[in-house]
């Protein structure tokens, strides 16, 4: 098995194949890595219900096997979870999780050699609280009655416990302010080729649709991970057909195009930027949650953004945010976590991206996509 | 509890913010985005919980001991001073523990919940105890704030902004302008307020609330046909007030008076650190018994500390400001067991839980449903609130850090540019504050504050209640 190869794969355990998002391959690869001691621990989501799951670090193979399934309303943040813990770990990761992990790796808080990243294709995740409201307002169903959910042909479909399906187009939902988180709409990392493996259901056609995962091997570590699962009897794989490969590439292209459109829609050029930023930040309560959650920030309690900021200052705009805007201009990955956790609903990711978009374009640097050092690391005092 | 992760509720105030606490050698706060009250978002205090949850140790007269020994010693001292024992529970623990504590208080002394419900007419007790659902705040057309939402109840800010997005007008009545308000009035201008049946007043109710002010707000709402809701500072204030509604209970002011008179010699505080609120009275006690899950200023002064699991490890029920029932996250009943040892009985969790559900009026703890509470009408109380007449006032802006005695990064007072000019204060310098001969020097922050007011979000040691007349100079 080699870097660059593609497969269709599924779990050899029937119940995991059934419970898995599309064939249970990811769960089985994670379990095999733990079982065969490729890693000491695995990150999984422990599902509470369709809208909540708790990220846990476990060394229990059964716990890993129990975690099968995709949760679209759980915008997890795994980079910060594993940082500074010196783990030999395998984990599933959405595109933004992968980028965060790689950026932490560059900052020496995660050992990338010891981290096996199983990337998940990602068309976007939804905020659980927004999803609950959406179910009541748009679908007229009680969140408690939801049994499962899937995305098909541009529609978000919820199945209720009575076996009925309820479908609305994602376009319509997003027009009304529901659907995917804003940052997911303009995210262009749809297939995480920056992870060791990239897994998803795109490209799985015919009889295998819904019962297998399309895997792309992106690194030697990825090959080791998948081969280990095959050798241990956890997964079965076969070569995909050309039709599937083409379909996957086509969907990827279409999704990336849609993301670019969203990017244009969200980041309309504006006059009077200063007033815009001042107004958006006027409700900030200095909680620091945006820094705590930021998957690329590795500063501890003593950091420039907090050291230059004093709550007793009466500046029109907080030094904390100003420093962060600059500090993250090369490194912001646009994951949306800061917006998610802001207690006063400041659209922080949008503000950070207003700085990051032009800087990253100018520097031709996409953080978290490879091991290139962040451009700001290269700025020396005598430059 | 899931692995080493607890799904819990922030103990900082009664908003009911959900979060995860991960025990990983150190404590880590993680965001529980599905939490109905806060969508996983936390304020400065919520983010400071690893610092708040410093484990307490059981102590008798300075000697470390076991929980059981400490509880037995507490039992001895309580029986030997029977009749002069006060039991204080502000609302920082589960309904089940509060109920057991209330039973203990009934047999050995008197119950203090801190608030002055007795001084308010009975027909307003329910309105003061249970607030309205946050969704109703979001749907209001006109919101009138008698709080500083940013400092005191930060998670209300986004609800106000959502209401504003839907077209609500926001009027703030405070000593300082609020960025989110469409109209900023000062407390002395309350009479200029234009209220209608579409207005919603948001105020707060706590042990230091001025009873006359509370009455006048209730009357204001009643006379205009407006809605009124009170926010509260303790994680289970609402639960505690509902459970104790029919119990004989006393306020913090009465407690201070009773200690000063010498009728109270032993004080038993259940998860309530009132050291900063009444340091002189505390110093007069023969026995200070503290039962708690975490160390704080008061555990250092206590003769007996009964230390058990922190809130996030407790089994039980919490009722948030809206009346929503939530679980604190754990399975621990160490607190109940200690109370049983002191009472000489065994408190059974299940039967207490059944009583709690009955008293609250719910059949199950379902955090996604706000139970329908009775919202009885009340007669407009007669109030005699009189504005403070001093020239310069120091106003305390009570916030979660102040109530729990946790240090915050706010060692400054806020004052207006006009005051800076009048006193010729220096940029980056300090202001001198004088009260009855006590002189303090404080850093200051310039803010759109009423010209004769200093605001503090931290106790600076010269306060006389929520508002203190002071003199200021350069
Ligand atoms: C939010 C999200 C969006 C996705 N969008 C697409 C898409 O548009 N196109 C596509 O081809 N594939 C998408 N996928 C991937 C797809 O749904 C399957 O996860 C993938 O095919 C692997 O299936 P499986 O049966 O092998 O995984 P499983 O064996 O079911 O294992 C899934 C693993 O992912 C973890 N997981 C579940 N939810 C999350 C989450 N929210 N964040 C991080 N980890 C999680 C679980 O803990 C488990 O370890 C998405 C996945 C997620 C989580
Ligand atoms: S202190 Fe109150 S507002 Fe702040 S996080 Fe805790 S419960 Fe929420």
TrEMBL record, chain A:
Top-level EC class as recorded in UniProt = oxidoreductase
Give the matching PROSITE patterns: 4FE4S_FER_1 (PS00198), 4FE4S_FER_2 (PS51379)
Keyword 4Fe-4S applies: no
EC no. given is 1.2.1.2
Give the record's keywords alphabetically.
Iron, Iron-sulfur, Metal-binding, Oxidoreductase
Identify the SUPFAM superfamilies for this entry. alpha-helical ferredoxin
The identity of this protein, by name, is: Coenzyme F420-reducing hydrogenase, beta subunit
**Could you tell me which species this protein originates from?**
Candidatus Methanoperedens nitratireducens
Automatic annotation (TrEMBL), chain B:
**What CDD domains is this protein classified in?**
Molybdopterin-Binding
Q: Which domain of life is it from?
A: Archaea
User: GO MF annotations for this entry?
Assistant: 4 iron, 4 sulfur cluster binding; metal ion binding; NADH dehydrogenase activity
- What positions does the domain 4Fe-4S Mo/W bis-MGD-type occupy? 3-55
Q: Which UniProt keywords apply?
A: 4Fe-4S, Iron, Iron-sulfur, Metal-binding, Oxidoreductase, Ubiquinone
One GO cellular component term, please give it. Answer: membrane
Biological processes per GO annotation: respiratory electron transport chain
State the name under which the record lists this protein. Answer: NADH:ubiquinone oxidoreductase chain G-like protein
- Organism in which the protein naturally occurs: Candidatus Methanoperedens nitratireducens
